[in-house]
Each structure stands twice: as C-alpha cells, then as structure tokens.
Write a structure and sequence with these properties.
By secondary structure, this protein is of the alpha/beta class. It is built from 7 helices and 11 strands.
C-alpha cells in the first residue's frame, strides 16, 4: 500500500468513528476537524491549516471557510477567536477547501458561493514556478464524504454550476509560453476539484475542459497527491501587514475599535 493510500484509509477510518455521534451538525464539524488534523500531519510545516475567513487590504471579506491552507511562515494572523477561527490576508492563502459530509446539489451550490467569495478577493497574480502553467491562488476544492448520486450526475451538476458563476479570476490555466495555450477554453471556473470519497473526482483541466475520473477507493490518495503538486508549484508573495494597518479596517470613524466586519466570524 502506498503512503497516500495509507493516509486516505486513516482519514476514512477516523470519519467512520465520527458518525457514531448521531447528530448531523456534530458529525459535520468532526469531519472538518479530521481533515484539518490530517492535512497538518501530511503537509510540510510551512503550510498552515486553519478555519475562518479571508480578507484583503480594502476590507472585503470572504464567507466562512472550512479549511484554509496558508503560508504559515510569512502570513500574519490578523485575528483569532476563542474557537480558533482565524482571519488571514488573501496574499498568504494557497487554497480553501469546503468539507461536506453529504453532498447534494444545494450543498455544492453553497460551496460555489463560499469559494467564489474568497476567489473574488484575489489579484491576478501568477505565482506558478512552472513556466508553462499559470496558477492564481486561492485554489478552491470541495471534499465530500458521501453523495448518493452517480459520479455522472455530480459531473453534470458541477459543470452547470460553473456555467452559472463568473469568477473574476481563473486559478489554473496554461501560460502563453505553453504549446497548449492556443487550444484552451477561455471560460473560467470557480471550483478547481470536487472529490467524493471512494467514488471519484470531477475537475477542470488546465485547458478548461471538465473531466470525470472514477478513482474509487484511491480517490483521497489521488486528491492529496494533486494538492501537494499544486502547492509545490506556488510561491506566494510577501504579505505586507502595513497595507492592512493603513486600510479601511483601522480608520477611526469605524463604529468599533477594529471594524464590525473585522470581528464577525
């Protein structure tokens, strides 16, 4: 058994244990924590794993994110509450992950809203170390433990929802230096990968073509491998906290000391 398959089996075993709690909310929160803890164990220490919200220097803020992967060495924690929710600057964020215990059309649409709220904060900055590929973070993923639908139905739902949303930026594409650049589709997409454990993945290729892969029991291992590959190809810019200190959050005419938007988590 390869190392990533072993890790994915451990995650699935932990998730099955969380289902002993017969309460949907508690199970969902437990599954999120299981994935956060597992990613902390898997990823190098330079990658932080958090939950909370993302903000830009203009004061715009994302919705609540289940998992935020960020540059722990250079990314300041602007705010942390008693439940360990964090507010992190967009420049220091690699990716966000939505975690769903049971995926449905409504839950997938909710994930689109949440991920879109984060992607719309970003500037069009290519951070890829690969000359032939453009990567504009944050990447957006959905991990679901279950979905009663077939992978074909999930694929159709995923493609339709991507057509309904219009993100300002596309995270993954070919660069002009790539021979494949001229053949890629111009349409953007919000979610870069939807994984359903033990079923498979649906995602867009760099050329903008949606694909469906029934990876079965290797689905988590496949996802983790791809995630690490994407992380390794990104070099995030330095986060200048002074740009946030001089931003709208800290103006004296705010109703609260640091701004009502800033502290609502």
């Amino acid at each position: 058994m390869n190392v990533y398959r072993r890790i994915s089996e451990t995650i699935k075993t932990r998730s099955k244990g969380s289902r002993l709690v017969n309460h949907a909310l508690e199970t969902g929160l437990s599954n999120e924590e299981i994935l956060r803890d597992s990613l902390r164990e898997i990823l190098p220490s330079k990658y932080g794993v958090a939950k909370g919200k993302i903000v830009n220097a203009s004061g715009a803020m994302s919705r609540q994110c289940d998992i935020i992967l960020y540059d722990v060495l250079n990314c300041p924690n602007i705010f942390v509450d008693s439940n360990k929710n964090q507010i992190l600057p967009i420049e220091g964020v690699y990716a966000i992950i939505e975690v769903k215990t049971q995926l449905t059309h409504a839950k997938l649409a909710e994930s689109f809203e949440n991920i879109c709220s984060s992607k719309n904060l970003a500037r069009p900055l290519n951070v890829s170390t690969n000359d032939h590929v453009k990567i504009i973070p944050p990447l957006g993923y959905v991990i679901a433990y279950n979905d009663k639908r077939s992978l074909e139905s999930i694929y159709d739902d995923y493609v339709k929802l991507n057509e309904d949303y219009h993100p300002k930026l596309r995270s993954l594409s070919f660069d002009k230096k790539s021979p494949a650049f001229k053949g890629q589709k111009s349409r953007g997409f919000v979610i870069d990968d939807v994984l359903v454990v033990d079923k498979g993945e649906v995602f867009y290729m760099y050329d903008g073509i949606p694909v469906m892969i029934p990876t079965g029991r290797d689905s988590l291992a496949s996802f983790i491998t791809t995630l690490i590959m994407h992380l390794d190809e990104m070099r995030l810019p330095v986060v200048y906290l002074i740009s946030y200190l001089g931003g709208t959050f800290f103006k004296k005419d705010r109703k609260t000391k640091i701004g009502s938007k800033f502290i609502r988590i």
